[in-house]
Amino acid sequence: MKKLIALSLILINLSGCVAAALVGSAGVGGAILYDKRPISTMIDDKHITQTADNLISEDPKLTGRSNINVATFNHITLLVGQAQTPDLKKRAYDLVSHVPGITRLYNQIQIAGATSAIQTTNDSWLTTKVKTALITKGGLQNAQVKVITENNIVYLMGETTPLMSDKIVNIARRVPGVTKVVKVFQYQR
C-alpha cells in the first residue's frame, strides 16, 4: 500500500510538470490546455463543480454506493464514474441538474462498482499522457481542451472547431492505454 501511495504522489507531481505554462487550470476534474475563458466563467465553473461534488458526496443514498466525479467547462457539466444501480445514476443526475448555472449536463456514469486506487492512478497517468500528446503536436492553440479520464475512457471537453476536434480526438485515441474517447465539445463560431 505504501508503494501505491508513493507512486500516486509521484504521478500527481509529474502531471503538474508537463508544460505548466500551457496548462490554464488544473484540478480534480482535469486540466485545460490554452484556457481563454473569462475569469468570471472560470469562477462560475469552479462553483458549479464544487456545488455538484458537495451534493453527491453529502447524499446518504450515494455515499458508499457510488464513485462520481464532476467536471465543468463553460457551464457545461459532465458526470463520470460509477454507481451501483441505474437508480443511483439517475439520482446523481437529478441532484446535479438543479445546480444553478448549468446550461447542459452529460451523464456518463457507468453502472458498476467503484474503480480501484490503482485504476484511479492509471487514469491520472493517462490524462497526463493525453495532455502531453496534445501539447507536443502543436497547432492547437485556438482550441480549449479539458481532459478527464475515467476507467481508461478519455473525455474531451472544451471549445474548438469541428476540424480541430477531429485532430484532438485522433491524437487522444492513439495514446497507449486509452480504450475510448468521448467528445463533449462546444464549437467555435
Chain-wise SSE layout:
Blueprint (H helix, E strand, L loop, with lengths): L1 H16 L5 E5 L2 E4 L5 H19 L8 E8 L2 E8 L2 H12 L6 E8 L5 H21 L6 E7 L2 E8 L1 H12 L6 E8 L2
Parallel strand pairs: 4-5, 7-8
Antiparallel strand pairs: 1-2, 2-6, 3-4, 6-7
Helix pairs in contact: 1-4
* Arithmetic mean pLDDT: 85
Radius of gyration of CA atoms, rounded to a whole number: 16 Å
Q: What quaternary form is this?
A: single chain
> In DSSP terms, counting alpha (H) and pi (I) runs of 4 or more, how many helices?
5
Estimated helix fraction: 40-55%
Contiguous low-pLDDT stretches (5 residues minimum) are 9-28
Sequence of strands across the biggest β-sheet: 1-2-6-7-8
Q: Approximately what portion of the residues adopt beta-strand conformation?
A: 25-35%
Terminal-residue CA separation: 49 Å
Q: Note the run of SSEs as H and E.
A: HEEHEEHEHEEHE
Query: Based on helices, strands and strand pairing, what is the structural class?
Result: alpha/beta
The geometry reads as: globular
Total beta strand runs: 8
What can be said about the biggest beta sheet? 5 strands, mixed
What does this molecule look like?
The protein has helices spanning 2-17, 39-57, 86-97, 117-137, 162-173, and strands at 23-27, 30-33, 66-73, 76-83, 104-111, 144-150, 153-160, 180-187. With 189 residues, the chain is an alpha/beta fold. It has a 5-stranded mixed sheet with strand order 1-2-6-7-8. β6 (144-150) and β7 form a beta hairpin. α1 (2-17) packs parallel to α4. The termini are far apart.
